[in-house]
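Review form for a predicted model. The reviewer records the input and the model, then writes brief findings.
Reviewer: anonymous (R2)
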Amino acid sequence: MIIIETERLILREFNNNDVMILYSIFSDAETMKYYPSPFNLEQTKNWIEKNKQRYREDGYGLWAVCLKESQEIIGDCGLVKQIVDGKTEVEIGYHIHKNHWSKGYATEAAKSCMKYGFDRLGQDKLISIIDPKNGPSIRVAEKNGFIKEKESFIFNKIHDIYSVQVW
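Model under review:
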């Protein structure tokens, strides 16, 4: 099911046929540099199942980011509920395979998810949880108007919390 269409991308729900292509992305050490470790096949399957559960329960989650021309999955991007300092927040999260870095895809996908969060979900604030050493992810957030709000201990280490308010 297509959720969002941009100039160059389609964001759609994950399905079980996406396991191997997503595994090729999530098992890459450089792409997953800011995660505790790359994913194995079972973790990738669980990632897809967790997002399918989010689609059912929340009406949103992380979606497959596909190039419009070829339909190739190049990563994921979407909205997920996170608990930050005891408060439920909605985060824009994204992973783009290293072969597609520096082409503006993460910025384009995240911007479309920000619009979706504000316009379709009625959120008045969105966040991104970013490892302080992840300069490219910080640039994506800043290009989309996010500013560093605070630091928070989440996912077993300190992360920067970037946020943007409804326009």
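Findings: Residues 81 and 90 are 5 Å apart (CA to CA).
Further findings: The longest strand covers residues 73-84.
Recommendation: see findings above.
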